[in-house]
Design goal:
Blueprint lengths: L4 H9 L4 H4 L2 E2 L1 H11 L2 H19 L15 E11 L8 H15 L11 E4 L2 E4 H4 L5 E5 L12 E5 L22 E6 L2 E3 L1 E9 L14 E4 L18 H10 L77 H12 L8 H6 L16 E3 L3 E3 L2 E7 L8 E5 L3 E2 L2 E2 L5 E4 L3 E11 L2 E14 L9 E2 L14 E4 L7 E3 L9 E4 L13 E5 L11 E9 L16 E7 L7 E6 L30 E6 L10 E7 L6 E10 L8 H4 L2 E3 L6 E8 L3 E9 L4 E10 L2 E8 L8 E9 L2 E9 L1
Parallel strand pairs: 1-9, 2-5, 2-6, 2-7, 7-10, 12-19
Antiparallel strand pairs: 3-4, 8-9, 9-10, 11-13, 13-17, 14-16, 14-18, 15-17, 18-19, 20-30, 21-24, 22-23, 23-30, 24-29, 25-28, 25-30, 26-27, 26-29, 31-32, 32-35, 33-34, 33-36, 36-37
The structure holds zinc ion.
């Protein structure tokens, strides 16, 4: 492939003007990501492009085009998945239908502004874009039967906290057989490498091993339809989805060309003039209505101005984005005859029910969620109804264990007083019938003061038992998780690692991973602390694939209402987050696997004193927001009360002498959570020093010192081992036989 996809997407994503940013397409970026994960895609794309050239040899465009009401060659069953978090992105059925209507106008060459297609003279030569515009003879219809044959309105609504910054990893939440349905996902925002600015993206038709569950297009709600939350009201065009469907049917951008070379067949289409879409151009990027003769490439014969009329370019406004060309239509037909040939068969159209009448008899589908599934005794929780598939006329909620224990409200609030796990049931009724959904053990109510007063070194990674202690990890991006590792540790033999994701294969850039503690009793304590160590090398990636941001961040939060609300206590920002200094270029995540070699490669983070609420119910949370850096290690999480930051607790020190009594030798063991100044002496019962066993700095971890009876000329009797650690004294009685 001659084309350099990344450059095109860089130019697009690199633009910062807000209007422009909201209108960019993530399809090239998506292909680049997928091709890294599935290298077979490169060959598949070549084969796909070559197949089109073959197809053209025998292709005959159909006649009788552009007739309103004429029967199209291809009818495509559609399912729209609205992935929402109860916000404005949960758009109305009417807004969805307005988009389907527009797709049918645009693909059938019936848009009202087609008058703007130019017929003109350029460099002395007459040309007609009007004559090139073609009816794709494709019609989109919302499915009326779901994959199981149940009645549907073709719209699925799924509540998810991931509707923001969505991408491929979210699609499997709700997907219908992609061979039989054209899947459209509508979300709040899209995270395609860059955290802002992607309006939509499509998956090209060529197959690859991971492609079946992600095939379709994803579009932000503001670019979907022309009513409701859509921004498209600004212009008569609603072209983002048309553009993405074009990609889904195999079309590339007209500027699909190596920058500044103006390859004529960069988009594999001969009747679209080559175009450079360059963010550095002096020409305004959008709305070239004032300069309709704009011509970024002069190599083609005959030389024509840029076809801003084309849906696959980026211009919007009355003068732009209103047509597909004849050869683009041929290419879409090629896709429908080969790669996507199951969608429009008579059998599939019957199975998906697209010709059935209005599905007013569809049963509603019950769905709900709550703001928090875990809380403490005495707290209230509110519930959201997310039911869909038809009008809901009444609600019946059942809340065993709560007050009240039932409700007929759409969004009820109930209170739980006793610790335990509780089911929640919602029954919805509508004209098509009723539906019942029970979520077993959906709500967890924790006892207040789950942990008694007393203090902890909670460095349990090495024991692999943090779950039993009530600690948990949570993720905005579920495919990339902390894992226990023995590759590095601050002070024991294991730590928790959030692995790097150098090519954003898991697509988690900009999302957070969190560690959440159980509740601790800090009432009456004014000198509490919560601390941990981490190691992280920023090792940034180019911004084109999601790195390079300045958003990497560690945040520490406290909560006194069982995690219902969190207050930020500390932020470690991008300039100081690295634990190895500013050596980003030498530790690129794509080539180096960062592992901290010693304690100097770790940093210590602590909140203390007034930052710890004097409350009987304190929870802590550590957030790490990832932006394309290297491995992130977390270790030595600890909390307690201290008279100073450095107080060592007996519980933490784990001081032991075994065997004791002893006849020939014994072993002294203790544990240091950090590098510390240590002095160890043996003292007799009169307080006289016999010997200094050690004096100096010791690194963190378990320390072991052998004490021989003859080595130190100890006669039988009672002695004390005296440890002084950073000025704090500990002692242990020993008996020599
Ligand atoms: Zn595009």
């Amino acid at each position: 492939m001659k084309k350099l996809l990344l450059i095109a997407s860089l130019a697009i994503l690199g633009s910062t003007s807000s209007l422009q940013a909201q209108n960019s397409c993530g399809t090239d970026h998506d292909f680049a990501e997928k091709a890294k994960k599935y290298p077979e895609l490169i060959a598949a794309r070549k084969k796909f492009d070559a197949g089109f050239k073959e197809f053209l040899k025998t292709y005959k465009p159909s006649s009788g085009l552009n007739k309103k009401g004429s029967i199209p060659k291809y009818i495509i069953p559609v399912v729209v998945h609205v992935l929402h978090d109860n916000g404005s992105e949960n758009i109305s059925d009417a807004q969805i239908k307005s988009e389907i209507d527009f797709l049918n106008l645009s693909f059938r060459n019936l848009v009202s502004d087609s008058i703007n297609r130019r017929q003109d003279t350029f460099n002395g030569i007459f040309y007609s874009f009007k004559a090139l515009a073609a009816d794709a003879e494709i019609e989109f219809k919302l499915a009326k039967k779901d994959p199981k044959g149940n009645c549907t309105n073709g719209i699925v609504r799924v509540q998810t906290p991931l509707a923001n910054k969505a991408n491929d990893e979210l699609k499997p939440i709700s997907v219908w057989d992609t061979k039989r349905y054209f899947n459209i996902w509508v979300v709040r925002s899209i995270n395609k490498g860059n955290s802002v600015g992607v309006a939509g993206y499509a998956q090209f038709p060529m197959g690859f091993s991971g492609g079946a569950s992600t095939d379709g297009i994803m579009v932000i709600h503001q670019e979907f339809g022309n009513i409701g939350t859509s921004q498209a009201g600004q212009t008569p065009n609603v072209t983002t989805s048309t553009h993405e469907v074009g990609h889904w049917l195999g079309l590339y951008h007209p500027f699909q060309t190596q920058m500044d070379t103006c390859e004529i067949d960069g988009d594999e289409i001969l009747d679209t003039p080559p175009t450079i879409f360059s963010a550095t151009s002096n020409e305004p990027l959008r709305n070239r209505c004032n300069n309709k003769k704009f011509n970024s490439c002069t190599l083609e014969v005959p030389d024509l101005p840029d076809m801003q009329e084309n849906y696959m370019d980026y211009f919007i406004g009355n003068c732009a984005s209103n047509m597909f060309t004849k050869q683009q239509v041929a290419r879409m037909h090629y896709v429908l005859e080969t790669y996507r040939n199951q969608l429009w068969t008579p059998e599939n159209l019957a199975a998906t029910g697209v010709f059935e009448t209005t599905p007013s008899n569809c049963k509603p589908i019950a769905a709900f969620n709550t703001s928090a599934r875990i809380t403490c005794e005495g707290n209230s929780l509110s519930f959201n109804d997310n039911s869909y598939n038809n009008t809901i006329t009444s609600y019946n909620w059942l809340f065993p264990g709560a007050t009240p224990s039932s409700s007929t409200a759409k969004r009820p609030t109930v209170k739980y007083d006793v610790a335990g796990n509780y089911d929640v049931t919602l029954i919805v009724n509508g004209p098509g019938g009723s539906d019942t959904l029970t979520k077993p053990n959906y709500i967890t109510i924790q006892a207040n003061n789950a942990n008694p007063k007393g203090f902890y070194t909670v460095d349990w990674w090495y024991q692999n038992n943090w779950q039993d202690k009530g600690w948990s990890f949570e993720y905005e991006s579920p495919n990339r998780k902390f894992e226990r590792t023995t590759a590095a540790s601050y002070n024991q033999n294991a730590s928790m690692l959030l692995p790097k994701d150098p090519f954003n294969q898991l697509m988690t850039v900009g999302t957070t991973a969190s560690l959440i503690s159980p509740s601790f009793d800090f009432s009456g304590i004014s000198n509490g602390y919560f601390a941990f160590n981490y190691a992280f090398a920023q090792g940034r990636l180019p911004s084109s694939i999601g790195g390079g941001g300045t958003n990497e961040e560690i945040k520490v939060f406290v909560s006194t209402d069982c995690g219902k609300t969190w207050t930020t206590r500390l932020t470690v920002g991008s300039s100081s987050i690295s634990t190895i200094g500013n050596t980003a270029t030498s530790i690129l995540a794509s080539s180096v696997n960062f592992i901290p070699a010693d304690q100097a490669k770790w940093k210590d983070v602590m909140i203390s004193g007034a930052s710890i609420p004097s409350n009987s119910n304190v929870k802590f949370k550590i957030d790490f927001r990832y932006q394309g850096g290297n491995n992130f290690f977390l270790d030595n999480v600890r909390l307690g009360s201290s008279t100073g930051n450095g107080e060592i607790l007996n519980d933490e020190l784990k001081l032991s002498v075994q065997p004791n009594p002893f006849a020939t030798s014994t072993k002294l063991r203790y544990f240091l959570s950090n590098r510390k100044q240590v002095e160890i002496r043996i003292i007799d019962i009169t307080g006289k020093e016999i010997v200094t066993l050690y004096s100096g700095e010791q690194s963190a971890g378990t320390q072991e010192i052998e004490i021989g009876k003859s080595q130190y000329e100890l006669s039988s009797g009672i002695y004390f081992i005296s440890l002084t650690i950073e000025g704090q004294k500990f002692s242990k009685k020993i008996v020599v036989e």
